[in-house]
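User: Hi! I'm working on a homework problem where we have to compare a predicted structure to a textbook description. Could you give me the structure for the chain below?
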Amino acid sequence: MKHIKLKMFGKHSVSALFFWLSIVCFLLSVIFFVGTFFSDLLKAFTALNSISKISFFFIPKIVFFYMLILIFRAFKTEKIFTKRTVIYLYLFAGINFLMVLVILLSLKFEGYWAQDIVPIFPLIVLGVFGLFIAAIFKQGFQIQKDNELTI
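Assistant: Happy to help. Predicted C-alpha cells:
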C-alpha cells in the first residue's frame, strides 16, 4: 500500500484544499447576503433596523471569508514567507478584532443577553492567533530575505 504524504503548503496541499473551501464559503455568503438583503430591502421601508442587522451580520462574514481566500492562496504557493502573506495575516487579525467591536456596538444599541456575547470569544482567539502567526511569518520572511542577501 502506497503512503500518501500530505503537504501543508504548496500546489497540492491542505492549504490548496482550504483555499477552495474558503471560496465556496465566500460565494455562499455573498449569495445568501444578496438574496436576504434584496428581499428585506422591500420590507426596509418600514423597518430600517432589518438592513442594519443584515449588514452587520453578513458583511463582516463576507470580508472574513475573503481574507481566508487571500491567506490560503498565499499558502498554496511555493514561497510562503512573503511580505504579502504577512500583510494578509495582520489584516485577518485586525478584521477579527473589528468584528468584535462591531458586535459589541450593535449589542450596546440593541440590548443584549449573556449568550449574545459568546460569538466574541472565538473572534478574539482567531485575532490573537492571527497576530502570532503573522509575527512568525514576519520573522520567517526576514530570515529568508537575509539568506537571499548572503547567497
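For your comparison, note the following. The chain has two domains: 1-77, 81-151. The chain is about 75% helix and 0% strand. Good luck with the assignment!
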